[in-house]
Amino acid sequence: LLSVCRSCLVKYLEENNTCPTCRIVIHQSHPLQYIGHDRTMQDIVYKLVPGLQEAEMKKQREFYHKLGMEVPGDIKGGETKTDENSNKETSEEKQEEDNDYHRSDEQVSICLECNSSKLRGLKRKWIRCSAQATVLHLKKFIAKKLNLSSFNELDILCNEEILGKDHTLKFVVVTRWRFKKAPLLLHYRPKMDLL
């Protein structure tokens, strides 16, 4: 996985349609629409560099103000709020942020296939969830959808290898699905007791 400054990548993709390191074609005509934002890396950078996030937000506000546009994600009224309203809306923003349910995390697209005649397939086998979700989360999800009495009755496999319940989907993608296209293909089956 490659992390690159977005502005550098955008400049590069104005002239090219390939990955800057491996030279694989991203998209023939619209490569900018197929690059993802690495929120985890961004959070790490913001924590390591004091004041960077505030400086970035200030630059973003100035940019949109210069164009005469509202800043995306801003609550109506922008910075012209009174102190009383500002404090109220800040706490509301914090509450909304706390209820994000990992939607702003890096996302993973998954296809869940059943490879056993003893279990039925899911009605909706394509899901998208946080890269921080674990195999255990998927087991619980599948068990709930199939009305199983326990999620411990399931094995989840990638490339015919049983995955550990504590593996994150990010770990699975990096270690078992490297260089393959999305979605991540996972299979589930009844747990097999090994003697």
UniProtKB/TrEMBL annotation:
GO cellular component: PcG protein complex
InterPro entries reported in the protein's UniProt record: PcG_RING_finger, RAWUL, Znf_RING/FYVE/PHD
Subcellular location: Nucleus
Basic and acidic residues compositional bias, start-end: 76-93
Residue numbers spanned by region Disordered: 70-102
Keywords: Metal-binding, Nucleus, Repressor, Transcription, Transcription regulation, Zinc, Zinc-finger
First-listed, main subcellular location of the protein, grouped into a coarse class: nucleus
Record keyword Manganese present: no
GO molecular function: zinc ion binding
Top-level division of the source organism's lineage: Eukaryota
A Pfam family the protein falls into: RAWUL
Protein name (database record): Polycomb group RING finger protein 3
